[in-house]
Amino acid sequence: MKSFFARFTNEIADGYALGPVRAVLGALLGWQALEASAELAQRGYFGDFFHVPMIPEALVPSHRVYALVLAARVCLAVMAMLGVWARPALMGGALLGMWILLCDRLQFHHNRYSLFCYALLLSLTPCDRSWRASDPAVPEPRTGPFWAVHLAQLQVSLVYLASGGAKLLDPDWRAGIVLGDRIVRHAHLAVAAGVPRSFVDTLAQPDAASALAKLAIMTELVLCVALWLRPTRVVAMWWGVWFHIAIQLTTKVETFTVLTLAMYGVFATPDYHARTLRFDPSRFWGKTAGTLVPIFDWLGRFEVKPWEPDDQPGHSVVVVRRDGGRVTGVRAFTMIARCLPVLFPLWAPLALLSSFTKKGDLTTAT
Length: 366
Hints:
The structure is a single chain. With 366 residues, the chain is an alpha+beta fold. It has three domains: 2-145, no CATH class; 158-267, no CATH class; 275-354, no CATH class. The protein has helices at 2-10, 18-43, 63-82, 86-103, 110-122, 147-169, 171-174, 177-185, 187-192, 197-203, 206-226, 230-250, 256-263, 284-296, 329-339, 347-354; strands at 12-14, 143-145, 275-279, 302-306, 317-320, 326-327. The strands form two sheets. It has a four-stranded mixed beta sheet, with helices on one face. Strands 1-2 form a two-stranded antiparallel sheet. Helix 2 runs antiparallel to helix 3 (63-82), helix 5 (110-122) runs antiparallel to helix 6 (147-169) and helix 6 (147-169) packs antiparallel against helix 11. The chain is globular.
């Protein structure tokens, strides 16, 4: 326990993978501020109507000050997104957002509070080492203290634990009554997103809703632990991705899905370019991989390098894993899908497919 606590507080690691997380949180902070600005323009200042402050009324901003706060939040969000004074901007945007929630309890939503909490914790991490529009080159050193990263990981787990635990203690949730009602009320959203109406109606049936409710509770309680364990982390993240996609398609959760999936980035192993992708630039698939992988490798998983073209079959693309093993074919694509966020939803079926074949294990020199 003592060694775990020491590693938790003293770890120094590469912060490159935190850059895209910061950029997404900056974009979400800006989106929230723009939505609040639109509400101010359309409905008026919240302080002129019924509101429930959690702080003394004297600390609630006036109409003009509130407008300035919203403008500041937009500016800070853009700065955080672009990497200009990223950490102070992220912290400033989070603190201003929390202040407004304290000024009006009616504006509180779990996803909004989670966004501000995650942004505040991320501002204490080395999240400014990458994804910098003002200085595209990765600054040296990329490393920094990771204690706040572990706090952000803990916050993600606490959200799952609180949500799953509350559902577990609620008999209506366990029975599927709450979930079934939610599916019925938001059925039009799922249908608009392309989900067949008959499928939505099936999910709303009592037996199906009960089974789904129990699956949702189990998922959240398992995720809060499995994300911390290296052997189960990638499976947990893959299951979590589809879990949140299903929630997004069937219910109205504002930006919570994007926020949670972005925060999965804090669980990425901090190993910049620990894998190598070698490709044959004279072959179509090799050239395609050599072009697209660097574009979508947002977490900096691969060092991408071409090799001299040859006439040996079966290795347009070779992935050299962290342990030095080399794979090609479907196994190489599986490794690429595991490391690129846009392909990650495909990882599990690809991993299952590749497990049935030894084709793709290479001894070919690169």
